[in-house]
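We emphasize that the prediction below concerns an isolated chain of 176 residues; any contacts that depend on oligomerization or on bound cofactors are therefore not represented. The input was used exactly as deposited, without trimming of termini.
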Amino acid sequence: MKLAILSDFHFGYPRFYEDSFNQAADAMRIACERADALLIPGDIFDSRTPPLDVIERAIKIFSIPQGRGWKVRIVGNEGTAPVVVIHGTHERRSRDFKNPVHILEAAGLAVDAHRAPVVLTLNGERIAVHGLGGVPEYLAKAAIDKRNYKPLKDAFNIFMFHQSLRELLPDEEALS
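Result of the prediction step, given as a token string:
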């Protein structure tokens, strides 16, 4: 199974506003032609609460993969184009609030791997995508520990995250 990884579109970023949409649309079209499934690990938007025109344009871009006759299936979400996403640090909101990536999922344009693993299947091959959306850096280790990620049996497992892991790295003294 061929996977395409597209990341950091930053839709709505003022300096490269138009460019972000143009490049994302081109990348999405090329990925749809060459890959069996798409992984998008965050920072799709440049803001936690993007303006409606930015959301509208993102929806148009995320509609590109729809109706292409994909052979890959998403277990539990059959009929959905194989576009697996997580939110990045730019879309991160507190637990009680929806983030803009949830809109893409609610519209049936993507499946969010932050909440639970997403299993892709093709000709007997299984890929499990486990996701950790952006969290504050000081909470990264606790979030990983709390989720207690375990590989799914009989699947190739991928951990998709959009996160600095400074808290998990050894300090400079430990490396000396």
